[in-house]
Amino acid sequence: MALVELRGVSKSFQKGDETITPLDDVDLSIEQGEFVSLMGPSGTGKSTLLNLVSGIDRVDSGTIFVDGTEITELSRSKLADWRAANLGYIFQTHNLIPVLTAYENVELPTLLLKLSSTERRQRVELALEAVGLSDRAEHYPRQLSGGQEQRVGIARAIVSHPKVVVADEPTGSLDTETSEQIQVLLQRLNKELNITMLMVTHDAEAAEIASRRLLLQNGKFVEREKTVLVPEDQTPASGSVATQ
Amino acid sequence: MITYVLKTLWRHRTRTLLTVSGAAVAMFVFCFVGSVQEGLNRLTTGEDADRSLIVFQENRFCPTSSRLPEDYAGKIKEVSGVRDVMPIQVWTNNCRASLDIVVFNGADPEQIRSSRPIELVEGSWDGFESQRDAAIVGRNVAQRRGLDAGDQFSIGEISVKVAGVFESSVPSEENLIYTSLAFLQYTRGLDAAGLVTQHEVTLAEGADPDRVASEIDAKLRTGAVATKTRRKGAFQASTLSDLVDLIGFAHWLGYACVGLVLSLVATTTVMSVQDRMKEYAVLQTIGVRPVRTMRLVLAESTLLCIVGGFSGTLFALALLWGGGFAIGAEGATIAFRPSIGLAVSGISISALVGVVAGVAPAVQAATVPIVDALRQA
């Protein structure tokens, strides 16, 4: 069985009188160590899929297995425990806790695990080192730049050694240069630490760092090949990437 | 996680300070009112409330209007079940309810020393017994009036020399000034010679107070002045009846203060939680259980209440301890006395209110729709 496996997953929303079904009987498998990027137009259900895999949203039908655990069967409390031990979540807007320092923010997930204080400290220091922010450990989020905040967010996502890390447009709120730094960091973490990643992005360039690229269209996945960037003035209005 | 709670409270320090102050003021009032209630309870249900009787002139209420022959003491002693009788002349500067009432009790110094639960903390018994105008002053009065042994103290037509300051296990005693009976009778004029305000009867072991009271009144019915004898507790409750009603009402004021704290802390916590719904969603996304989220919110509200309640209670107790406050009417006084019970109940109620106030916002934080909350800007 793949590390992440979705079988016949459907999810609908009610918007006024209209029922929207962004995910309709979707199947997906992600192997251990894979870095999967997920693209698609707005409202196609990319973030919904991410939320379902994270267990912070519920499927209407279908099942989701992560490392053999059927998370669709778990209660809210059990899901929290499962997330603490198995999942790292990188938010688009960082979502650091403003009253805590970078160190304390990264430490938070480890407080939910049964770790000794020494092990906890080691993990936090390693995670901060991995994102290059050891020297900013005592800074509060308001004292950090957007890119640094996101790196703290990434450290927080990997500190508990999760089976899978999901990232919801992790470069969405960053400038180009910082965005590139974050992409490199994610790629490095995937390769060096063998962390399985599922990343939702609007950014075609960011999607390219993944080992596997998926496009979500009309509630279904379409596998995308490696793309080449085409200058904007030569592209049709529909998009800025072309499949090779 | 306690770091998170403490830092969250510190982040909103103005709100925290205002809430803590509100809780402190409310618990201060609660404890102050509680001390009055406790004082009244001690007065009317204390150890000697049922084992002593007060013989007063029938249909008279103010000490200035009760005039009983001193020699009634001998007749009262003849009633079976009476162990001892102490004729007392009472003088007060104010028959109406007052916060600065001064009450003199004139009685035989020997009897005072042997029958009253008092102990001198300043001065000497010899000085009291040997000088005609000597007085021993209760600690509360001494505190309020700034009196020490050796001072001269005058009020109205009475002027005494303070021979000592006493403390007592019965708080209301500490609001009295004792002089010799003869001295107090003398200051009221020659027509007061041989007259006293009341007789205090100490019952013998096993004697039925109501039977003894009836027998005393029956025996003295043929005398010059008819009497009304009641248990000391009942007598004092009746003397202070107007105040008892007022204190009963103030008791509700105490509960209203608890309600006020509840409402204040609940409102603050709800507002705080609503401002941070996204934060709670983030915490749960990271893996914090809903129950733990609840505990975080409950910890916040309980801390606010405990800190506020503790400060208010402590301040109230310190003020009660140092102030020596008392309220009295018609010669009876209620001491506002701090007690461990009051401190424990003040702090316990604060903690309980903190938990109750946090329940609704805690449930709100624990059941936050994570995805919707994360979408909040």
UniProtKB/TrEMBL annotation, chain A:
<dbReference type="GO" id="GO:0016887">
    <property type="term" value="F:ATP hydrolysis activity"/>
</dbReference>
<keyword id="KW-0813">Transport</keyword>
<keyword id="KW-0067">ATP-binding</keyword>
<dbReference type="GO" id="GO:0098796">
    <property type="term" value="C:membrane protein complex"/>
</dbReference>
<dbReference type="InterPro" id="IPR027417">
    <property type="entry name" value="P-loop_NTPase"/>
</dbReference>
<keyword id="KW-0547">Nucleotide-binding</keyword>
<comment type="similarity">
    <text>Belongs to the ABC transporter superfamily. Macrolide exporter (TC 3.A.1.122) family.</text>
</comment>
<dbReference type="InterPro" id="IPR017911">
    <property type="entry name" value="MacB-like_ATP-bd"/>
</dbReference>
<dbReference type="GO" id="GO:0005886">
    <property type="term" value="C:plasma membrane"/>
</dbReference>
<dbReference type="InterPro" id="IPR003439">
    <property type="entry name" value="ABC_transporter-like_ATP-bd"/>
</dbReference>
<dbReference type="GO" id="GO:0005524">
    <property type="term" value="F:ATP binding"/>
</dbReference>
<protein>
    <submittedName>
        <fullName>ABC transporter, ATP-binding protein</fullName>
    </submittedName>
</protein>
<dbReference type="GO" id="GO:0022857">
    <property type="term" value="F:transmembrane transporter activity"/>
</dbReference>
<dbReference type="Pfam" id="PF00005">
    <property type="entry name" value="ABC_tran"/>
</dbReference>
<dbReference type="InterPro" id="IPR003593">
    <property type="entry name" value="AAA+_ATPase"/>
</dbReference>
<dbReference type="InterPro" id="IPR015854">
    <property type="entry name" value="ABC_transpr_LolD-like"/>
</dbReference>
<feature type="domain" description="ABC transporter">
    <location>
        <begin position="4"/>
        <end position="243"/>
    </location>
</feature>
Automatic annotation (TrEMBL), chain B:
<keyword id="KW-1133">Transmembrane helix</keyword>
<dbReference type="InterPro" id="IPR051125">
    <property type="entry name" value="ABC-4/HrtB_transporter"/>
</dbReference>
<keyword id="KW-1003">Cell membrane</keyword>
<dbReference type="InterPro" id="IPR025857">
    <property type="entry name" value="MacB_PCD"/>
</dbReference>
<dbReference type="GO" id="GO:0005886">
    <property type="term" value="C:plasma membrane"/>
</dbReference>
<protein>
    <submittedName>
        <fullName>Membrane protein containing DUF214, permase predicted</fullName>
    </submittedName>
</protein>
<dbReference type="Pfam" id="PF02687">
    <property type="entry name" value="FtsX"/>
</dbReference>
<dbReference type="InterPro" id="IPR003838">
    <property type="entry name" value="ABC3_permease_C"/>
</dbReference>
<dbReference type="Pfam" id="PF12704">
    <property type="entry name" value="MacB_PCD"/>
</dbReference>
<keyword id="KW-0812">Transmembrane</keyword>
<feature type="transmembrane region" description="Helical">
    <location>
        <begin position="294"/>
        <end position="320"/>
    </location>
</feature>
<feature type="transmembrane region" description="Helical">
    <location>
        <begin position="340"/>
        <end position="360"/>
    </location>
</feature>
<feature type="domain" description="ABC3 transporter permease C-terminal">
    <location>
        <begin position="257"/>
        <end position="368"/>
    </location>
</feature>
<keyword id="KW-0472">Membrane</keyword>
<feature type="domain" description="MacB-like periplasmic core">
    <location>
        <begin position="16"/>
        <end position="218"/>
    </location>
</feature>
<feature type="transmembrane region" description="Helical">
    <location>
        <begin position="252"/>
        <end position="273"/>
    </location>
</feature>
<feature type="transmembrane region" description="Helical">
    <location>
        <begin position="16"/>
        <end position="36"/>
    </location>
</feature>
